[in-house]
């Protein structure tokens, strides 16, 4: 990842075609090391390609990857019609408890204006 980040920083800085030495210099400036084979692999894969097109195609691929927020909806839908309502009620109760704790923390038993 650090090699990719260095490449992107070099491109962002105006170097449209960074070399292996450019990336090593960039990584060395922050105290990071990178293996030559990693740098060469990256440079061979992005050679002759537009970085904005690569990022756009990567976003399309990542859009299909499930993220952490999907677990709740999967669990609720796995419960079926009979299990869906209790799960929603349990979530509502949890939210109410959280709100009550926040209100009691604000009071602390004294007032600054008394």
Which helices and strands, and how do they pair?
Layout: H1 2-12, H2 20-29, H3 36-46, H4 51-63, H5 70-78, H6 80-107
Helix pairs in contact: 1-2
Explain this structure to me?
Helix 1 (2-12) packs across helix 2 (20-29). This protein is extended. The chain has helices at residues 2-12, 20-29, 36-46, 51-63, 70-78, 80-107. It has 114 residues and is an all-alpha fold. InterPro entries: P1/P2_N_sf, Ribosomal_P1/P2, Ribosomal_P2. This is 60S acidic ribosomal protein P2. P1 and P2 exist as dimers at the large ribosomal subunit.
Identify low-pLDDT runs.
Answer: none
Helix/sheet category? mainly alpha
Strand content: under 5%
The counted number of beta strands is: 0
Q: How many angstroms separate the termini?
A: 57 Å
Number of helices, counting only DSSP H or I runs of 4 residues or more: 6
Question: What's the gist of this structure?
Answer:
By secondary structure, the protein is mainly α. The chain has six helices and no strands. The model has no long low-confidence stretch (mean pLDDT 76).
